[in-house]
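During the second year of the project, the team shifted from modelling isolated chains to modelling whole assemblies. The rationale, set out in the original proposal, was that interfaces cannot be judged from single-chain predictions alone. As a representative example for this report, we include one of the complexes processed in the last quarter. Its constituent sequences, exactly as entered into the pipeline, are reproduced here:
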Amino acid sequence: MSSSIGVEKILRNREGGELSQEERDVLQGAVREIRTLPAGHVAVRQGERVEHSTLLVDGVMMRFIDARDGRRHVVGVHVPGDFIDLHAYPLKRLDHSVGTLTAATVAVVPHSALERIQVNYAHLTHRLWFLTMLDAAMHRQWVYRLSSLNALERVAHFLCEINARMIAIGASDGRSCPLPMTQLDLGESCSLTNVHVNRVLRQLRERNLCVVRGHQAEILDLPGLADTGQFDPGYLYLNPETAARAVGQTRSQP
Amino acid sequence: MSSSIGVEKILRNREGGELSQEERDVLQGAVREIRTLPAGHVAVRQGERVEHSTLLVDGVMMRFIDARDGRRHVVGVHVPGDFIDLHAYPLKRLDHSVGTLTAATVAVVPHSALERIQVNYAHLTHRLWFLTMLDAAMHRQWVYRLSSLNALERVAHFLCEINARMIAIGASDGRSCPLPMTQLDLGESCSLTNVHVNRVLRQLRERNLCVVRGHQAEILDLPGLADTGQFDPGYLYLNPETAARAVGQTRSQP
DNA sequence: CGCTAGCTTGATCTCACTCAATAGCAGTGG
DNA sequence: CCACTGCTATTGAGTGAGATCAAGCTAGCG
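Output from the structure prediction step:
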């Protein structure tokens, strides 16, 4: 089996330290299968019972809830290293759907293997629990974002979050960040229409904060963008150095 | 020590079954201290490191995030039986504040005791993890509520959620539900101004769905209210009978 | 009895939505 | 090679839900 299945990105640059080599090996051993999914694919449908959880190795995925009027509302976005539906291990049934934005590679971990981990590896279990709590913290920030911020601020905040998470896994250098989603997807994530997302992106461009083009975000002024989005990366529980990079500071303030 | 410290309400009427008597005893034994808090008290401040978690025994509490403009945004509400900040056990530092709405009684559980539970009681640990995932599921629904629903629907949805959770712990009969919060608090929970909450409550009254008065919600038409709020209790992971009661059905549909 | 917190109602304003039209661009097939 | 199709991006004009501002009202309480 390959030694590089995405396990190495788990918890990278987070508070509380990295996993030990043994723990990574244990996780790796828990993987039953590697699967590739096409873009726009629904992996788990709302209400489904599942007996395994999915670790995202490559690509971008999201969680969404379908509204009565047929609209889709994104409640979370996932980047490589995220254990997307680890919460299905305690929950067993999902209250939302999970799908791909891009083509994706995932590692499938059966819950039976997680049970064995839970019995035998207390620290690893504690860190996996932490992982699921990271998602909850992001959910809370999304609630806050929707409650408190206007359209421009919301998009800025969203871009800062994605960029911070991409920095943590080494996929962004803080100036150029992958953003493999359409303006419609962006709207579904920030609760805006695609039309308004377009206007907001123009504003960000005009203010020399950020240029979104193709599937890439060019961040011209990260401190400015973070300020616009009132972005404080505390909720991502990054280690101090990474948190500083996430708001465009190379050195911490005195 | 008293045998009734709120432990008996934990996970009551949820999917996955009740805790065993032994598990309840173990949890009870983990309680270091019972504390009473006045209304309007901030128990944990955003960013604080904590070494213990808090089980709500009596009263109503909430989690909130302070915005730059000084406004407060509620990201979660808690009723007795909720292990409010159990997520602090893996996270150690909270990304939001926790406070009381009413006077409250809480049981304090040190993380060292939770560590012992995690090593020795796999099933109980799994259920505690489940408990934290319930909060995450509620967060997701709040994101959805803010994204998808208008003011009337949002308030209706919120009332249905509180009512369902009160039903689960035996504090509501489905027609009369405690709602110990002002219209301002309600607004901070649904992202509306107190003025608009007031107008919305009038509409609910005029439609004979619900009358909110004092610190009590009189629900006149629970199926109607649930329909208005597009409320589907699936995300609360209640057992089937309780879920049916939460939307005003005494019998399940064929 | 006066004070304060919470509730109620009215008038006006604004941000983001809706509807609509156009342009660009990739893929597909004749 | 071009016509055709479908998806994404862009811009304009009009609309509306909920915010804001302002003023009374009510009730509990020292």
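The longest strand of chain A covers residues 52-58. Chain A touches chain B through 48 residues (CB under 8 Å).
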